[in-house]
Design a protein that fits this description.
single chain; Anthrone_oxy; DUF1772 domain-containing protein; mainly alpha; 171 residues; transmembrane; membrane; transmembrane helix
Length: 171
């Protein structure tokens, strides 16, 4: 009975691994875009102009990135749990889940509170520059964690596919 349950759960390892890799990759792509395109532009813009731009566009960025982060977090956690319950090699899936959790944690602890301050209308120009430096530094951490999550989730999906093929070949 336990083997049957484990087998049913293991059946989901590959699809969840692929969903985890895809969602982590899309989230990371969004963060890389912010890193490569937006952050340099923000730094080159006078602080008052940056605050106006950010206030006008933060909602759009948030409406895209929050669902991506939530989706990546949910699928990476589901993938790791499925691989653990299915008694498969789960190291890569666990790394992906932890790294994605790290992205979410940094976002909630550092970047979202900073975003609220940028749009509050109460920052001076020097405070804006300092906060943007802090925001960018922690965003670098998010990008690295996102890259780790994407690579680990891709590895886990590949391992799940190999394991599923091996199971199917057993007599």
């Amino acid at each position: 009975m336990e083997h049957e349950h484990t087998s049913r759960v293991a059946r989901w390892a590959r699809p969840l691994g692929l969903a985890s890799a895809t969602s982590a990759g899309v989230l990371t792509g969004g963060m890389v875009f912010i890193e490569v395109v937006l952050v340099p532009s923000w730094r080159a813009t006078p602080p008052a102009e940056f605050r106006r731009w950010f206030t006008a566009h933060a909602g759009r960025i948030r409406s895209l990135m929050i669902p991506l982060g939530a989706g990546a977090g949910a699928t990476s956690l589901a993938s790791a749990v499925t691989q653990l319950v299915g008694r498969r090699r789960s190291g890569a899936a666990v790394v992906a889940a932890v790294a994605t959790g790290g992205v979410v944690a940094v976002t909630l602890a550092v970047n979202e509170p900073a975003n609220d301050r940028f749009t509050s209308g109460r920052l001076t120009d020097p405070e804006t520059r300092d906060l943007l430096r802090t925001w960018a530094r922690w965003h670098h951490v998010r990008v690295v964690l996102g890259l780790v999550a994407t690579v680990a989730a891709t590895w886990a999906a590949q391992e799940a596919g190999v394991a599923r093929t091996a199971e199917a070949a057993r007599p």
